[in-house]
Write a structure and sequence with these properties.
Shape: globular
Strand content: 5-15%
Structural class: mainly alpha
Oligomer: single chain
Number of helices: 9
Helix content: 55-70%
CATH superfamily of the largest domain: Winged helix-like DNA-binding domain superfamily/Winged helix DNA-binding domain
Radius of gyration: 17 Å
Order of helices and strands: HHHHHHEHHEEH
Largest sheet: 3 strands, antiparallel
CATH architecture of the largest domain: Orthogonal Bundle
Strand order of the largest sheet: 1-3-2
CATH topology of the largest domain: Arc Repressor Mutant, subunit A
Number of strands: 3
Length: 180
Amino acid sequence: MSDPEIEAMSAVSSAFSTLEDDARGRVLRWAADKYGVPHIGATGSATQVDQPAVEATGVEAHSVSDYAIQATESTTYEHFADLYAAAAPTTKQTRVLVAAYWFQKVKGQDTFQAFDLNRELKHLGHYVDHIADALSANVNKKPQLVLQVRKNGNKGRKTYKLSTEGVRVIESMITLGRQL
């Protein structure tokens, strides 16, 4: 079960990793023009939709990726429901990633287990059947979005952490959700 949105984000991230900032801006502008995305201006800076957030922080956003980083870092989420709503996940794999982001980036835990993720998802009415399969799908993606760091005992309880790419995917989802 693959998620085309995550695969596209991973492909873009992989392609951008070798490009300079100017080249990234040109590629983003071309893609925005080609696919009719109204949120990227001709200069690569945030458009009017994004300006209030930029003005409120006093930091000029030079590119869409700069704005994504700025917006995500400046936002704190009091409740998991706030983060979930901001990211708006649509598949089991992305629901699991959002829950993992909650534990790792918002709550500051180094690692997490499937049970903890599903407990939070269940409270919102988004319980994931066979959560281990959803986590495995994220582990098996290239690049990996989730990393298995340990298997505990005979019961097979595994401990995971988000990869850098997994964090980027969720932060992109949060930023895109704000722009819509």
